[in-house]
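ingest -> validate -> predict -> emit
validate: passed (alphabet ok, no gaps, 485 aa)
predict: started
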Amino acid sequence: MADTRQSEDDGTLSRVLCGRIAAFALTVAALLIMASELVVPGTYSRSAVLVVGIVTAVVGITAWWFPWDRFGRWTVLLMVPFAFASVDLAWVTADRNGFNFSVSFVLIFALVGLALPRWTSLRLAPLLVVAFLMPLLAVPGQLATTGLGSAAYVIPLCVLLGEAIAWGMHRYAIAQAEIAESLASIQLLFDEAPIGISKLGLDGRFLEVNRAFADIHGFTREEMVGMSVRDVIFPDDVPLQQENIARLLSGEQDHFHMERRSVRSDGCIVWVSLNGSVVCDSQGEPVFMIGQMEDITERHELREQLRHHAVTDPLTGLPNRKLFMEHLDDALQSAESCGRHVALMFLDLDRFKLVNDGIGHDAGDRLLQRVGQRLQNALRPEDFLARFGGDEFTVLLPKITSREDTAKSTQKIIEALSARFQLHLAGQGSQREVSIGVSVGIAVYPGDAGDIDGLIKAADTAMYDAKQTGNAFRFYEHPVVVRGT
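emit:
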């Protein structure tokens, strides 16, 4: 049953198109029959010619509206015997034009090859022989004798032409099926791709998106078609994407890659990795753009966490030595270009070792955390605090006007740490009140040193001087050089 259905549906043209081609051919033939009678009246029966023409036209017009799609392709074959009969009646009742008679059969088989499967023309050969010879034998004469002579090459020509056209249409059908299969595979790959893919018009509106692309943005595929790309981009990232698209369309680049933020339908922000390219026509003019997108929100957050951990002290949450050195370098460059002064403080906690060894390392860790919090609260917004290591902290004052200004900031730090600390003792369920002090060394750029290493060394020296002398803080003092007399 499956093989029969396949043979009925073989061919390139649809059943509806096949039937309407036959209907159109009959209608045109009928009009030509009647036109020939009206333009050049013959010696034959005019009424008979008109009857043949009218009947053929009615059948052709009716066949045009016949529901061919409801029946198998074999239904079209019913038109062939009627076409043969029309040609034969036209021969009998008209002027018996031998050329038109032969050409009509050739055209019929050309249509058979165009609309029906291979071997149909060969199967119709016996019917062709009868249809071709019967009117010639029924109405004798010189034209009939000539027609009988031409049968030797007209009939084979009809069959060969029909089979040749049918073979060509069969090959064309195979090619079309392969193309359709390839297009279906491409569409399936597009629809089911694990990464988001979009087709974007030159006006910035989505022409087509796949399921993954729609899922990233929290919309359905149907909802995204027609939306502007601006509707799903985080506002701050719009200029960069527009710049990339402009360079893409102008031919400055054939693709681009960027990481940006997208806004989901629920308002949530997702980080995406986007690759964009342009599709051009044969003249090199842009037609549309293709975007490939991947949700990298988790990867981006992990990367930010790693970056944060790389420059952050894990105990206090303050910037670590590495980040502090970067800020110090930037501050010195800025101060040099603007003619400003920068102060660097080195802080070392007094009596911290007694707390750490006497109460425990857990208490020492909590003490460092509390110290960091108090220092942060005592500083100005533009000041930069970091844990340099152990019980040492550093403070960068990027904008100072005088030593007095720096001394005031230092005094606030000392006062912040002078109050006692309440520390919870782990495992004992009690608290211990501790008191510590701080020694601060201060160096000023560019007076005390002209580079990072010199400034750090000067502040460190001042801090040790403060600790040895018992002063809370000290500014760096240049050593006195005694020259011999």
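The chain has three domains: 2-184, 196-301, 311-475.
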